[in-house]
Amino acid sequence: MLFESTTKQLKRYTKSVWGKTMSPEDKQFAVIGLGRFGMSLCQELSERGAQVLAIDLDETCVRKAADVATQAVVADCSNEATISELKLDDYDLVMVSIGEDVNASILTTLLLKEAGVKTVWVKAKDTSHSKILSKIGADKIIRPERDMGIRIARNMLDKRVFEFSELGSGISLAEVVVTAKNMGRKISEHPCGSHKETQVLALKRGPEVRKDPDPSTELQVGDILIITGPEKILNDTLRKL
C-alpha cells in the first residue's frame, strides 16, 4: 500500500492499525529493523513489560511485530522527517538492528544522534561497519554472532565462567560458578571478592538473588557470583580460579 508522504503513512499505521497508547511511566524502546535479531528484541522487551515501538520498511515484518510490540510502524528511519514524526528523541533507547544494508544503518544512526536521541545502540555487520558507527557516535555497538561466539568459547574453555559481558569503557561483568575449591570460603576470601579493583554485585543461590552481599557470607558449591571490574583485571582473576 502506497501513501502520499512519509507523514501520512506513519499516521495511517499508528492510528488505525496499531494505535496503542504508550505509558510515559514505563521504559520506552524503539527497534529499527525487524529481522530475527530485531524481532527477538521486541518480544523479550515486551514480555518484560517495556513499551516497544517496532519499525521496518517491510510491511510483513511490521505485521508480525504488531503481535508483540506496543506499536509497529512501516517507516524509513534513514529519513530525517520520519525520525521527527515518530519523536524518537523521547525514547529511552533506540536500537538500530538493520540487517544487510550498511549504508541505511549508518545514515539512520547519524540522523538519530543528530536528532538528540539519548541512547543509540546499533547492530554491526563487521569490523569496518563497527568503526564507522563508533566515529559517528553510536553509544553501543553489538555484533551478535561474534559476541555469542566469544561467550560460548569462554564457557567451553572454563565451565566456572557462566557468563562474561563487556560493558564498555574497559569494564566487564562476569557470572562465576563457585566450585568445591572455594566451598566454605567467605566472599571476601574468594579471588574475585578479595581483589581491590573487582566488585561483587550479587550472589545467586538457587532462585534467591542477594544484591550487594555481605563479604562474610560463606560460599556453597553452585553459588554464582556476579562480578564487575576492569576487563584485563577480571580476566586475570578468572584465570587464577
Automatic annotation (TrEMBL):
<feature type="domain" description="RCK N-terminal">
    <location>
        <begin position="26"/>
        <end position="142"/>
    </location>
</feature>
<feature type="domain" description="RCK C-terminal">
    <location>
        <begin position="159"/>
        <end position="241"/>
    </location>
</feature>
<dbReference type="InterPro" id="IPR036291">
    <property type="entry name" value="NAD(P)-bd_dom_sf"/>
</dbReference>
<dbReference type="Pfam" id="PF02254">
    <property type="entry name" value="TrkA_N"/>
</dbReference>
<dbReference type="InterPro" id="IPR050721">
    <property type="entry name" value="Trk_Ktr_HKT_K-transport"/>
</dbReference>
<dbReference type="Pfam" id="PF02080">
    <property type="entry name" value="TrkA_C"/>
</dbReference>
<dbReference type="InterPro" id="IPR006037">
    <property type="entry name" value="RCK_C"/>
</dbReference>
<dbReference type="InterPro" id="IPR036721">
    <property type="entry name" value="RCK_C_sf"/>
</dbReference>
<dbReference type="InterPro" id="IPR003148">
    <property type="entry name" value="RCK_N"/>
</dbReference>
<protein>
    <submittedName>
        <fullName>TrkA family potassium uptake protein</fullName>
    </submittedName>
</protein>
